[in-house]
Amino acid sequence: MVSHYSVLKNEVLNFFEKRETNNKYIVDATLGGGGHSEAILEKFPDVKIIGIDKDNYALSYAKERLRKFQDRVIFVKSPFKDIDEVLKDLTIEKVGGIIFDFGVSHFQLRLPRGFSFQREEPLDMRMDTSQDLDAYYVVNYYQEWQLEKILKEYGEEKFAKKIAKEIIKRRQKDKIETTKQLADIVCSVYPPKLRHRKIHPATKTFQAIRIEVNNELEEIEIAIRKSIELLDKGGILQAISFHSLEDRIVKNLFKDAKKLKKIEILTKKPITPTKEEINENPPSRSAKLRVAKRI
Question: Domains (ranges, CATH) in the chain?
């Protein structure tokens, strides 16, 4: 199995220590490889985890990793936006904590699922491989204005217009089938002096298409709204984001909930990884953690 690294693990544990409720349930709404859940179960012997993920591979990986805690973990295949339905099916009204770790998992990037532009893979990018919409469809069948819109909005890509135009031009000759083909198209549009910087030119395009395929931003908004209502008084909600669009959604929803006197925000500014963690796991450098307590 592919290894998995969980970011800001110590910080997550420290904030869960601030729970002011006897409710023993913590929802790991983006279970992934189970790293956060494992740390929580080890740190808090009385806690029970409800682990949610829509990726079958993630669930099987986490089940193996958390086998020694099996009597304290409930695994559920579901999009995290349906967190309320998951709890309703388990006849659980409120929980003592919820954690989200948004974006693509470390091990998903290493599997041949089309998330990475580092290797030649089929264009896929689905977190839930049973859904219909995939990256191949987006790249080969979306209209030019649609491609430009998602590259601009979800990728914050300044060459969105040129990239969309070039994708249309190339796919008229042959379908674009692999990650490398797409990455090469993006690189060809970038000015030569910008092609060899630390961040690969295709990064923002891949991010934008992945967000579109998995409906990520809308899911985050729905899930955070629901989660605030599902927390017991004194319960802790934690959200780890990896780019500005995700972080902005969490920040604004927390602000709105604070105005309504539903939560206390425990992080004036988002918590970011230490230098030591970034050295150990460079992709963690863009992680931001925001935390709130239900009041």
Answer: 9-107+216-294 (3.40.50.150), 113-214 (1.10.150.170)
